[in-house]
Specification:
single chain; 195 residues; mainly alpha; globular
């Protein structure tokens, strides 16, 4: 029963669409009708409001981290992993958005930071490095997702690596359209409007 409550609480926390909330608070309109239509920080940045984008990034990461840390403190390490998974599912398939949602990158990074700080740090460094060099948020996310299970196996433990592999698979699944655009060379770069 306790694990069901952990999963439900983490899912509801993950479901909070902070990109949509920030866009409304800053008077940017419905973020789902801007740029790519995604509710994440990269799309909020396309409005030109860097503060709103930064807050979205921090809050989306924070809900993943909070779910893990609360579950770990109240129940234990197994519950922490479960909470991270369900926070991610909440972001991707939000009950508040008719089971639509974002692509999960910030929530993924926040979850990793809380599960194991060295893993999260390595993942964030990977995302930042690829983003600075290539200027593609989606490519940075995909490279990070591909390497995160390896980081987890090295710095955390093999059972955690299985969980992170599942989270990474969700990242790849939600980035299907981005992968096609990257291959077609039509993917917009960071801060650029969609073509």
């Amino acid at each position: 029963m306790i694990y069901i409550l952990v999963a439900l609480g983490a899912y509801l926390l993950g479901s909070v669409p902070f990109g949509l909330v920030m866009a409304k608070l800053f008077g940017l309109g419905d973020i789902r009708k801007i740029g790519s239509g995604n509710i994440g920080a990269t799309n909020v940045l396309r409005t030109g409001n860097k503060l709103a984008a930064a807050l979205t990034l921090v809050l989306d990461a924070g809900k993943g981290a909070a779910a893990v840390l609360i579950a770990r403190a109240l129940v234990g390490e197994d519950a922490a992993g479960l909470a991270g998974l369900f926070a991610m599912l909440g972001h991707l398939y939000s009950v508040f958005l008719k089971f639509n949602g974002g692509k999960g990158v910030a929530t993924f990074l926040g979850t990793l930071l809380a599960l194991s700080f060295p893993v999260g740090l390595a993942a964030c460094a990977t995302w930042l490095t690829v983003a600075v060099i290539a200027r593609y948020s989606s490519l940075a996310a995909l490279v990070t997702a591909a390497l995160a299970p390896i980081y987890t196996y090295i710095f955390y433990h093999r059972h955690g690596a299985v969980l992170v592999l599942l989270l990474s698979a969700l990242i790849f699944y939600r980035h299907g359209a981005n992968i096609r655009r990257l291959l077609d060379r039509t993917e917009p770069k960071i801060g650029q409007k969609d073509k």
